[in-house]
TrEMBL record:
<dbReference type="GO" id="GO:0019843">
    <property type="term" value="F:rRNA binding"/>
</dbReference>
<keyword id="KW-0067">ATP-binding</keyword>
<dbReference type="GO" id="GO:0006298">
    <property type="term" value="P:mismatch repair"/>
</dbReference>
<dbReference type="InterPro" id="IPR000432">
    <property type="entry name" value="DNA_mismatch_repair_MutS_C"/>
</dbReference>
<dbReference type="GO" id="GO:0016887">
    <property type="term" value="F:ATP hydrolysis activity"/>
</dbReference>
<dbReference type="GO" id="GO:0005524">
    <property type="term" value="F:ATP binding"/>
</dbReference>
<comment type="similarity">
    <text>Belongs to the DNA mismatch repair MutS family. MutS2 subfamily.</text>
</comment>
<keyword id="KW-0175">Coiled coil</keyword>
<feature type="binding site">
    <location>
        <begin position="332"/>
        <end position="339"/>
    </location>
    <ligand>
        <name>ATP</name>
    </ligand>
</feature>
<dbReference type="Pfam" id="PF20297">
    <property type="entry name" value="MSSS"/>
</dbReference>
<keyword id="KW-0378">Hydrolase</keyword>
<keyword id="KW-0540">Nuclease</keyword>
<comment type="function">
    <text>Acts as a ribosome collision sensor, splitting the ribosome into its 2 subunits. Detects stalled/collided 70S ribosomes which it binds and splits by an ATP-hydrolysis driven conformational change. Acts upstream of the ribosome quality control system (RQC), a ribosome-associated complex that mediates the extraction of incompletely synthesized nascent chains from stalled ribosomes and their subsequent degradation. Probably generates substrates for RQC.</text>
</comment>
<feature type="domain" description="Smr">
    <location>
        <begin position="713"/>
        <end position="788"/>
    </location>
</feature>
<keyword id="KW-0699">rRNA-binding</keyword>
<dbReference type="GO" id="GO:0045910">
    <property type="term" value="P:negative regulation of DNA recombination"/>
</dbReference>
<dbReference type="InterPro" id="IPR005747">
    <property type="entry name" value="MutS2"/>
</dbReference>
Length: 788
């Protein structure tokens, strides 16, 4: 990709904004070198990695980059055999920890969507937990080694503390005994040795070594002879401590040296991941999407936004070319947004080809181009004695030499800066030449001749930037298919120019020109209305499709819930009967024991009679339960594949998948399950049932659900996707159960989970209103939902 286009389209400014999200200077260096990739495969891969990182940010929050630093210099030094400082070792350990934690960060359950590109990148990470922990155990600060770094260091420091304590006691005693000779009743340290501040005139009264004197010379700092040996021992211990620390640092550096390839590889992967997540953070803040990539030169960007314009001010525009037409000629007033439109096309194409998500709406399409050429802005050069026209023409000559069918060409004010007649003729010739090469072109102009060229040439389309004559301001909306209309007369009238001057001016314009301008106005009005209607229809269609899909899913869930409820109820009934049998048997056993203790045989016969009566009742109840559904519908002697029948054992409609086998069994589908059942258990379906029974059933089911559904659901510990699924299912159950108000517990945390739940509640069909919990309800850790 030519550097000039990247500079003109301000890709460097986009990169500067992305760099703000990078954690390390290594990742920032990667961003500095970011350019469009050389193949469509690379573009798709890098777009996919950015999209995966974007999804991870949404579901799991920030990646494990805590305490990450750029340690390239330290890794290079240790690779040459150097011993690192404690702070450098600590930063390398933090890098190794980030790399190890990242493998866990991208892990996912088997039934969840994976992150194949990021997983491939992280596959190269080699966990070095032993080295990582060894460094963290040995180093506790930038310049502080832990006592437990080695047993030898621990013993040295223990002895050193004891010696210091001993010498302090000794020197304090000497301060008290020599107080009359001292400048102050205290001791001090000079060169790691304990000394006394002795008055100069009494130096002979305190025998010892003089280490220093005050600036006035009135005080001498003397080390008493009785302290010399103790101070020597302390000095020796400190030298041993220093030597042991150097040995520990050398050992830790050696561990890294022995694994230098793995450490360097982990570092490179972490820099790459830092770069990828910087792109994802930028995409998240700009509300970007993953575009569809093609190689056919088709551009169809829905509600494109220029990334460098403030989000509160930018006007989204849908821009397309490459299907019905390959050239787009944009006309309109100055400051109307023509140049911004060109730059938006160019920068969004460059962003996509550089692996960045684009600021547009879903289903936007961009194309892969070998080259993007841009002639935008005034590049007048005084040094080279080039006028504006000459500067533009020099650039255009270069474009014509190199552009082909794999090129996107952007012209701003093509042919401007010279005689209008000659400039318009040149502009038409340049556009036609490039169009025949099948280049994709977007050009802005003020020349009416180019409007006519676009109207009569196949493959070329007019477009304009809208102007509101009521407010005398541009709306910055792009209208494709309509050439720009000159509003000079209308603007002049609104600014107060006398009507007779405007009328005289109109007389000097040919009738054909006026009719052409009026035709443009009519086309513009009709096109605006048509686009508005089409947009509204498309939105309604999409909304209807979403509702259809949502309610299809809800219906499937409800059917599964009903199936499960019936099966569970039957299991429960069987369990109750079984337990009742056991209980009856236990009672009778106990009665027999009592009988053996003194009851007569007549009593025993009566008890046996009662036992038999109880057993018969239980057997009848069990048989009724098993055969409850068998009486419903007529027995089937034969079935056909695809036939809907009633499975009497579970009172459930099923679909026949096969004809009876030799055993008289049929394969049927019940909900999401496929099971083999006996042909005798299948019944013909009764098509109608009384409305009253349905109402009664619904009331019983609602009452049952109300008893079974909790008034709150706890989502803490879940990721965003799992939480949304759980909350959605819970709201369905709560709605069916007739609950009026429920509580969703999401915790406070980083706020990612609360935001995801809030976005879901905005569109949920069962939700009437929702609010953050008040004091005593859980505060910002819960959301209280009122159901319809």
């Amino acid at each position: 990709m030519n550097k000039k286009s990247l500079r003109i389209l301000e890709f460097d400014k986009v990169k500067e904004r992305i760099k703000k999200y990078a954690q390390t200077s290594a990742a920032k260096d990667i961003i500095d070198g970011l350019e469009p990739y050389d193949s469509v495969f690379e573009v798709r891969q890098h777009l996919k990695e950015t999209d995966e990182a974007f999804n991870l940010l949404t579901k799991k929050g920030n990646p494990p980059f805590e305490g990450l630093f750029d340690v390239r210099e330290a890794i290079n030094n240790v690779g040459k055999g150097a011993t690192l400082f404690p702070g450098q070792l600590l930063k390398i350990a933090q890098l190794l920890r980030s790399a190890r934690r990242f493998k866990s960060f991208i892990a996912h359950k088997e039934d969840e969507e994976g992150y194949p590109v990021l997983e491939d990148i992280c596959a190269g990470i080699v966990p070095l937990k032993r080295i990582e922990e060894k460094i963290f155990n040995a180093i506790i600060g930038e310049n502080e080694i832990a006592d437990r770094a080695s047993s030898k260091l621990f013993n040295i420091r223990k002895t050193l503390r004891e010696k210091n304590s001993s010498v302090k006691d000794r020197v304090n005693a000497m301060v008290r005994s020599n107080s009359k000779y001292l400048q102050e009743n205290l001791y001090t340290i000079r060169g790691d040795r304990y000394v006394l501040p002795v008055k100069a005139e009494h130096k002979s009264s305190v025998p010892g070594l003089v280490h220093d004197q005050s600036s006035s010379g009135a005080t001498l700092f003397i080390e008493p002879m009785s302290l010399v040996n103790l101070n020597n021992e302390i000095k020796e211990l400190k030298l041993k401590e220093k030597a042991e620390i150097e040995r520990i640092l050398a050992e830790l550096s050696s561990d890294i040296y022995d694994n230098i390839n793995a450490v360097r590889n982990n570092a490179n992967i972490i820099w790459e991941l830092d770069f990828i997540f910087a792109k994802a953070h930028y995409a998240s803040d700009l509300d970007c999407i993953l575009p569809i990539i093609n190689e056919d030169g088709i551009i169809d960007i829905i509600d494109a936004r220029h990334p460098l314009i403030d989000a509160k001010e930018v006007v989204p525009n849908s821009i397309y070319l490459g299907r019905e037409f390959t050239s787009l000629v944009v006309t309109g007033p100055n400051t109307g947004g023509k140049t911004v439109t060109l730059k938006t096309i160019g920068i969004i194409e460059i962003m996509a080809m550089s692996g960045l998500l684009i600021p547009a709406k879903q289903n936007s399409i961009v194309s892969y181009f070998d080259e993007i050429f841009a002639d935008i802005g005034d590049e007048q050069s005084i040094e080279q004695s080039l006028s504006t026209f000459s500067s533009h023409m020099t650039n255009i000559v270069n474009i014509i030499d190199k552009a082909d069918d794999k090129s996107l060409v952007l012209f701003d004010e093509l042919g401007a800066g010279t005689d209008p007649t000659e400039g318009a003729a040149l502009a038409v010739s340049i556009l036609e030449n490039l169009r025949k090469r099948n280049c994709k072109i977007a050009a802005t102009t003020h020349y009416s001749e180019l409007k006519g060229y676009a109207l009569k040439t196949i493959g070329v389309e007019n477009a304009s930037v809208e102007f509101d004559v009521e407010t005398l301001r541009p709306t910055y909306k792009l209208l494709i298919g309509v050439p720009g209309k000159s509003n000079a007369f209308e603007i002049s009238r609104r600014l107060g120019l006398p009507e007779y001057i405007i009328s005289y001016a109109k007389q000097n314009i040919s009738k054909d020109t006026m009719e052409f301008e009026n035709l443009i106005q009519s086309l513009q009005d009709k096109n605006i209305k048509a686009e508005k209607d089409a947009r509204e229809a498309e939105i309604l269609k999409m909304d209807a499709e979403k509702l259809k899909n949502r309610y299809a899913q809800k219906l499937e869930k409800l059917e599964n819930i009903r199936e499960k409820a019936i099966i569970e109820a039957q299991k429960e009934a069987k369990r109750v009967i079984r337990e009742a049998k056991h209980e009856a048997d236990d009672i009778l056993k106990n009665i027999r024991k009592l009988e053996s203790m003194g009851y007569s045989s007549d009593v025993r016969q009566k008890l046996e009679k009662e036992r038999k009566k109880l057993k018969d009742k239980l057997d009848i109840a069990e048989e009724n339960l098993a055969n409850k559904s068998k009486n419903k519908g007529q027995k089937l002697k034969s079935v056909e594949e695809g036939q809907e029948v009633l499975l009497s054992t579970i009172d459930q409609k099923v679909i026949v998948l096969s004809k009876p086998d030799k055993k008289g069994e049929v394969l049927v589908q019940a909900g999401i399950m496929k099971i083999n059942v006996k042909l005798d258990d299948l019944r013909a379906i009764k098509e109608s049932s009384s409305a009253t029974s349905k109402v009664n059933y619904s009331k019983r089911e609602a009452k049952l659900n109300m008893n079974m559904v909790s008034s709150s659901v706890d989502l803490r510990g879940m990721d965003s996707e799992e939480a949304i699924y759980t909350a959605d299912k819970y709201l369905d159950d709560a709605y069916l159960g007739g609950l009026g108000e429920v509580t969703i517990i999401h915790g406070k945390g980083t706020g990612v989970l609360r935001k995801a739940i809030t976005n879901m509640l905005k569109k949920h069909p069962h939700v009437k209103s929702y609010r953050i919990g008040s004091y005593g309800e859980g505060g910002t850790g819960v959301t209280v939902v009122e159901l319809k």
